Amino acid sequence: MKKKLFVIALCIMMAAVMLAACSSGGGDAGSTDDGAATTETADGAADAENTQTPASTDGTSFTIGYVCNFMSHEWYQNVTNGAKRRAEELGITLEIADANQDSSQQISFAENFIAKGVDVLALTPVDATTLGPVIEKAKDAGIIVITESNPVGGEYTCVGADNKGAGKQAGEWFGNYGKDNNIDLKFLLVGFPNFEDCRLRVEGFKEGLEASGAKYSIEQEIDSQGGKEKALQGATDACTANPDINAIFGINDDSTQGGVQGYKAAGLDSSKLSAVGYGLEGVVGREALQDDTPIVAELAMFPDFVGACIVDASKKAVAGEDLPERYLTPTTMVTKETYGDFYTQEGDAWILDFDAVEALLK
Amino acid sequence: MNQLAKRKNSFFGLLQMDQSGLLIALIAIGIVLSILSPAFFTPNNIMNILRQASPSMIAAIGMTMIILSGEIDLSVGSLQAFAGVLGVMAMNYTGNIFVGIIVTLGAGCSAGLLNGFLVTKLKLNSLIATLGTMAIFRGVIMVITQAVSQPIKVKGFSEIGMGSIGIFPTPLLIVIFLIAAFYFVLNNTAFGRYIYAVGGNKEASALAGLSVSRIKLQVFVIGNILFSISAIILTSRLDSGQAIAGVGMEMTVIAAVILGGVSLNGGIGSLTGAIIGVLILGVLQNGLVLMDVNTFYHDIVRGTVIIIAVYIDVRRKQSADIRLLKESQASL
């Protein structure tokens, strides 16, 4: 009897600890692990079951249902933060669900939003090939569909950066950096070839290098699978095999930093290394750029602004405005010196200046 | 003493009996890679492989003990993130490396108690129980960090994973110490024999008076503390606490341990086999990158080599068994 009571008490304690952890840390993500379509409004007041969709679609008051790809990643957290910020500014209701990298879950959440009768369905595709039928279903229900990052086909517009063009920007910048500093660049490219966006970044980067007229060679390309752990392991091996490497380009912040760590782990002199990352997704990229590291610049994609653009594009679409197939978001090279041009510090947080980013479009 | 006993009692005899097939496979892979890539067989690269394989080798020690006891632990990968991130947060908060290490080890110990409790007290199947804790550990650390990596703000911690003492990487020295200690525990102590016994035949062990539950609980705690030591090295190498650290590590470690000849049914296998298993996978991974083999082919090559290595080992063991049987019959 005592043993049973002990077991029950332990179970209750475990549950209490887990709940406490969840309630203390889960503030902004708006996701749960129970598979339910967890959503939140811009004012954080209601969930999916209770929120009433505003009837008005006059272009100023309407509801966006956004199914994000993977909110456990800093990039998507900042995208959703930016979307929430813009929605609040414009008085638009925004509901968010997290597909958690599961295509079937994404379709279910999209269907839930269709059933609820949102005015705009926004999707960051987990897998673009799976979303055709649900987009048709939404359109049949009179719902405007907007995608982010990857076009699916059939959507009103696709919001996001030009990955190849941005990669080219980074390549040209790095090539010119090599020329200005008299460095014969010998590259390690840390990519993620399974993912089309990342392949395009590397392709663009190579084109940019070529266009810069810099003297360079690509010693090796490795696959980081988008993470620091794999990047570290691969880069250590690659730098051991090619100790002449003195330049690293990574397809995201973690890949770049894993590459730099791998360079050090191979016993090479990091004062001879220059690295450029892609993304400037949040804290990781910012600290790497601001600290004394070999990362000399980052291709900034401004995820908060991408989120804001989802809301802006939705507003324009609801108002009947024609939009291009690709609703391009700006990218630019950011260095330690220019970081402050786009971000301002408020306490521990760094807030993106939307106007400064918008000015890049002009 | 007959020939069979003599052979079993010598170290090289043991190696010949149990792991020579794997060792041959490892050496063969090494020779092939040395021919194909001049960068492979260099002191730097050998140390690089051993440094990289260190977290997996330490985790393999823990996993070997758990599998030998007849259980399995799928939470090893999630624990890398859970224990590692908690340690980094504690270290950043206090500015003290020692506190970070203690918190990481404490997290490992708590995880071991939880896993052991679920398996031995609640009588849950270890595959299911640790599948659950694998998700819980990862989920909790995602919630706490919101998936944002935690940069290490205390200088000196990265030396654990990246530093060297003389020509030897620091993590390698930790691995050597742990292998020696746990080789001794498994082969020369009553506790080691109990682990083999409860894994080999739980009922017979209980009838012989062993407390099967207590031994398994102890094995889970020790195993998970070893996982947290590997988390310290991995975190140090990454120079940050990563909520996605160790994703898929359970498959690498379990594959290496099984490749090393440890039976999934428990009670059969050795630590040296498991370590050679980790090294085979590590060498292969390293060699494929050195040769600049397209990443899409890595899994195919790895899978093929695992099958060939196990096949060589099985055939060698079969012929050794036949030879020993003949020798023992001849000695009668």
Note the gap between the termini of chain A.
Answer: 75 Å
| Percentage of β-strand residues of chain A | 15-25%
Biggest interface found: A-B, 46 and 44 residues
Question: CATH topology of the largest domain in chain A, what is it called?
Answer: Rossmann fold
The figure for the number of domains of chain A is: 2
Spatial strand sequence of the major β-sheet of chain B: 1-4
Rounded to the nearest angstrom, the radius of gyration of chain B is 21 Å
And the CATH topology of chain B? ABC transporter involved in vitamin B12 uptake, BtuC
Estimate the global geometry of chain A from the Cα principal axes.
Answer: elongated
Elements of chain A, N to C (H/E): HEHEHEHEEHEHEHEHEHEHEEHEEH
Beta-strand level of the residues of chain B, as a percent range? under 5%
Secondary-structure-based class of chain A equals alpha/beta
CATH architecture designation of the largest domain in chain A? 3-Layer(aba) Sandwich
- Could you tell me the number of beta strands of chain A? 14
The number of distinct structural domains of chain B comes to 1
Relevant terms:
heterodimer, A: 362 residues, alpha/beta, Rossmann fold, 2 domains, 6-stranded parallel β-sheet, 6-stranded mixed β-sheet, 12 helices, B: 332 residues, mainly alpha, ABC transporter involved in vitamin B12 uptake, BtuC, two-stranded antiparallel sheet, two-stranded antiparallel ribbon, 4 strands, 77% helix, globular
Describe what this molecule looks like in 3D.
The complex is a heterodimer of chains A (362) and B (332). Chain A has 362 residues and is of the alpha/beta class. Chain A has helices spanning 2-25, 74-90, 103-116, 132-140, 163-180, 196-212, 228-241, 253-265, 283-290, 303-318, 339-342, 354-359; strands at 63-68, 93-98, 120-123, 144-148, 157-160, 185-191, 216-223, 247-250, 274-279, 295-300, 326-328, 332-334, 343-346, 349-352. In chain A, the strands form three sheets. In chain A, strands 2-1-3-4-5-11 form a six-stranded parallel β-sheet, with helices on both faces. In chain A, strands 7-6-8-9-10-12 form a six-stranded mixed β-sheet, sandwiched between helices. Chain A has a two-stranded antiparallel sheet with strand order 13-14. In chain A, α2 packs across α10 and α7 crosses α8. Chain B has 15 helices and four strands. A two-stranded antiparallel ribbon of chain B has the order 1-4. A two-stranded antiparallel ribbon of chain B has the order 2-3. Chain B is globular, with a radius of gyration of 21 Å. Chain B has 332 residues and is mainly α. Chain B starts with a helix and ends with a helix.
